[in-house]
Write a structure and sequence with these properties.
Elements (H helix, E strand, L loop, with lengths): L19 H11 L5 H22 L3 E2 L11 H5 L2 E6 L5 E3 L2 E3 L3 E9 L5 H10 L7 E2 L1 E4 L1 H9 L4 H5 L5 H21 L4 E6 L1 H6 L3 H4 L4 H10 L13 H10 L7 E6 L18 H7 L4 E5 L19 E7 L9 H11 L8 E5 L14 H19 L2
Parallel strand pairs: 1-6, 7-8, 8-9, 9-10, 10-11, 11-12
Antiparallel strand pairs: 2-5, 3-4
Helix pairs in contact: 1-2, 5-7, 5-11, 7-11, 13-14
Length: 387
C-alpha cells in the first residue's frame, strides 16, 4: 500500500474531461442500447488511460477523473437510501447558463444499508498505485449534502421526512462515517471533501440563496453551532458536520477539502472573497489542507489566508480550468510569493483552481489544452520548490 499523502507541490482537484468514447457509451447506456457491463468496460479503459497520462506527467496522485459520475456531488448522494432524483426541468442557476443536473431530494430517512458504489470505484484506482503514486477519493463534503437538502428549493421534501435540521445532520454524519469506514477498509488513505457551501456563504447574495436576510444569514450561521458543540463552538452548521464526519479518524487517514464557487461548462455559481468566512473556514475546520480557488478576481486576495490555523496546508488554485489560455508563468510565481506573506512557502502547494469537468459536459477546452494546464502546474511548482 502506498504511504504517500496529499497534497503534493503540484497537484490537482480530481475531475478530467470525459473522452468522446466515454460520452458515446454513456449516451448508449442512457438510451438502453448497451447494458452497464458494456459501459463499465469503456469506463475502465478510459480510467486506465487517464491514470497512465497522469503518471507520465510525473504527478504523484491519481483519481478516476470522476469518469463514472454524471456530476461531482449528486451521484454520491444517490448512493444512499432515502435519496431520490429525477431529470431536471429548470436546472441550477449558473452565470449565463443553467446546470441541467438531476433534481435530487429526500424521499426517506438517509441511511447506508450496503456498500456505497464509490468504494468499488476506489478499489479500481487503488490497484493502479505504485511507489510514486497514491490514489485519492473525492466526494462532496457533508456540508454540501446538508445544503442540498436544507436550501429553499428542497425544504418541502426534507420537512416531510425530518422534523429538524439537527435530525437530518445526525443522519448525514452517520452515513458519512460508514462511507469513510468502507473506504478505509478498501485501502483509502487520502480523501478530499469538495465543498461549495463556503462559496455561497461568501457570496453577496448568500442570504438570498439561503432564503433569509443579510442579518438572518448571520443568525443562520450562529444557529448552526448547536449540531455538535463538542467539536467546534461558534461555527456554521456546515463546518460542524464536516468536522463531525471526520472525528475519530485513524492517524494515517488524510482528509483535505476543496472550496469551490461552482464549476459547470466554464461558468460559475457564486463569487466573493474569503474574508467573511476565513475565521471559521480557515481557523476552525479540522482538515489537513485546503484546495482553494484563486484564479480570478471573484476569489479576492490572499490576506484571509492569515487565518489558516496550526500547520494546515494551502493548495493555491492559480491555474484556471475554465479557459484554455495558459497563464504567464512568472505571474503565477509572483502570486505564490504574494500568498507566502500569509502562509509560509513550505506549507503552500499549487494546482488548477477546480476540476476540468465537474459535470459530464466539462469545461470549454480540449483534452490537449487540459494537459497543457497540468504541465504548467508542474513546471511552476518545480521552479518555486525545486524538483
Amino acid at each position: 500500500m502506498s504511504k504517500l499523502q496529499t497534497p503534493f507541490r503540484y497537484d490537482f482537484v480530481g475531475s478530467f474531461l470525459r473522452p468522446e468514447k466515454l460520452k458515446k457509451a454513456r449516451r448508449q447506456f442512457d438510451e438502453g442500447a448497451i447494458d452497464y457491463a458494456a459501459l463499465k468496460v469503456v469506463e475502465d479503459e478510459c480510467i486506465l488511460e487517464l491514470a497512465a497520462k497522469i503518471k507520465a506527467l510525473g504527478y504523484h496522485v491519481i483519481t478516476d477523473g470522476e469518469f463514472r459520475r454524471a456530476t461531482w456531488h449528486l451521484d454520491f448522494m444517490w448512493g444512499f437510501d432515502g435519496v431520490g432524483h429525477v431529470p431536471t426541468k429548470t436546472g441550477l442557476p449558473f452565470h449565463g447558463e443553467a446546470a441541467m443536473v438531476d433534481d435530487t431530494y429526500i424521499i426517506g430517512k438517509i441511511n447506508l444499508s450496503k456498500e456505497h458504489p464509490f468504494v468499488d470505484h476506489f478499489r479500481f484506482v487503488k490497484a493502479l498505485e505504485d511507489e510514486n503514486t497514491v490514489a485519492k477519493q473525492t466526494m462532496p463534503a457533508p456540508a454540501q449534502m446538508l445544503a442540498q437538502f436544507t436550501m429553499p428549493f428542497n425544504r418541502e421534501h426534507t420537512e416531510k421526512v425530518y422534523a429538524s435540521d439537527e435530525e437530518l445532520a445526525d443522519d448525514i454524519v452517520a452515513v458519512y462515517g460508514k462511507v469513510i469506514d468502507q473506504l478505509y477498509a478498501a485501502g483509502c488513505r487520502n480523501i478530499q471533501l469538495d465543498d461549495c457551501t463556503w462559496g455561497m456563504f461568501a457570496d453577496k447574495i448568500g442570504h438570498i440563496l439561503y432564503g433569509t436576510t443579510r442579518e438572518g444569514l448571520i443568525e443562520v450561521q450562529k444557529s448552526h453551532k448547536d449540531i455538535n458543540n463538542r467539536v467546534i463552538a461558534n461555527a456554521p452548521k456546515d463546518m460542524i458536520i464536516n468536522t463531525l464526519a471526520i472525528e475519530g479518524k485513524p492517524e494515517d487517514l488524510v482528509i483535505n477539502t476543496h472550496v469551490c464557487r461552482g464549476n459547470f461548462h466554464s461558468t460559475y455559481a457564486s463569487e466573493g472573497a474569503y474574508d467573511s468566512v476565513a475565521d471559521i473556514l480557515f481557523g476552525e475546520e479540522h482538515v489537513n489542507a485546503y484546495f482553494l480557488e484563486f484564479d480570478d478576481e471573484r476569489s479576492g486576495g490572499f490576506a484571509p489566508l492569515a487565518k489558516v490555523s496550526g500547520e494546515k496546508k494551502v493548495v493555491l488554485g492559480l491555474i484556471t480550468t475554465k479557459s484554455p489560455v495558459l497563464e504567464d508563468k512568472q505571474v503565477v510565481i509572483s502570486r505564490i510569493h504574494e500568498a507566502a506573506k500569509y502562509v509560509p512557502l513550505d506549507r503552500l502547494y499549487l494546482s488548477p483552481q477546480c476540476g476540468f469537468a465537474s459535470c459530464e459536459i466539462g469545461n470549454k477546452l480540449t483534452e490537449e489544452e487540459q494537459w497543457a494546464k497540468m504541465r504548467l502546474v508542474k513546471e511552476v511548482a518545480e521552479e518555486v520548490w525545486g524538483r
